[in-house]
Amino acid sequence: MNDPLRIACVETRHFLLPLSHPMTDATHGVHTEFEVVAVRLESECGQSGIGYTYTIGRGGAAIRSLIQRDLQALLLGADAGRIEQIWERMWRCLHYVGRGGLAAFAMSAVDIALWDLLARSQGQPLWKLLGGYAGEAQAYAGGIDLQLGPDELVEQTRCNLADGFRAIKIKVGRDKLSEDIARLRAVRDCLGPDRPLMVDANMRWTTEQAIRAARSFREFDVFWLEEPTIPDDYAGLSRIAREGGLPIAAGENLRTIYEFRHTLEAGIAFAEPDVSNIGGITNWMRVARLAYAHNLPVTSHGVHELHLHLLAAIPNASFLEVHSFGLERFIKNPPLLHDGLMRAGAEPGHGVQFEWDKLREFEVKGD
Ligand SMILES: [Mg+2]
After folding, report:
1. What is the CATH number of the domain that holds 47?
2. Which positions are catalytic?
């Protein structure tokens, strides 16, 4: 008899997609395109699940190759109802070349597809299957806008408020700290005193530079300062949190639960795992529980259409970052924002349905 959860087919596709407009941050410069690696699993009964990861333009072919050449054989015939077991098998399979890095991206795409398949097979929306706490999340507009001056940022902020956002993040890390301060002042004046305002330095600074910047930002009631320095400098993060006087958010560049443990112990205030690079939903939920044990909230990075379900499921959710590099242009039913909130849908699984016909022209064929 055919098993509704036994995996019979694994399909992996790689796309190089144009951004809707150039985006700039302090470490990666100007981005004009991004990659999506998508995995479609199908069970013996024809039940399917979709997972995906993304890059900022490089590494996608290697991720696709890891899935096709190394993980696919392990997945065929496996029971998608035993995700923890599959996750550990993937982790051990790639451990010698992995322990994070590209392997974590490949595992993420597969793991997300497994959870989607499981949730669809049970007729449950993902956020309910994962715990079903609030069913919605507070959202903020995640600007990738280091290139914008004060006047342009004010214009962007007005548009975001008109679109329903009630919290905003801007990039910082310009060559002169005075420029960051002028940009921040302009946005705070536009937002008023009560709406949350976050800033993101994308690892630009040394510890000393970050402490100096954090102190100079305090007058603007910054909700969090994100990635002030490299993720590997736990002692530096600890000093920035203690001496800078602002809550620190970090996590988009962490790829393992062990890195999160060290980072939380360093004294950050907001854990920021990205489901598309931390090893999927299985490991994202582990990070969320680790943060819970530290009495800390969890926020998200990118792919808001997926993170909405995760933050809607847990009791220690903070804000949902809304930016997905414009991926919503290729999704049939992107989630909608209303007065600062996004509500997770009721359809089974994570509910993301790609417009495959629109994606086809951007497909990167394998070797
Ligand atoms: Mg960031």
Report:
1. 3.30.390.10
2. 171, 301
Q: Residue 25 C-alpha to ligand 1 middle, in angstroms? A: 9
Distance from C-alpha of 293 to C-alpha of 286, rounded to nearest angstrom? 11
Counted domains in the chain: 2
Single pTM value for the model: 0.97
pLDDT tens digit sequence for 302-330: 999 999 999 999 999 999 999 878 898 99
> What digits encode the pLDDT tens for the residues 202-260?
999 999 999 999 999 999 999 999 999 999 999 999 999 999 999 999 999 999 999 99
Q: Is residue 351 part of a domain?
A: no
Q: Which amino acid is at 287?
A: V
Neighbours of ion ligand 1 (CB under 5 A): 200, 226
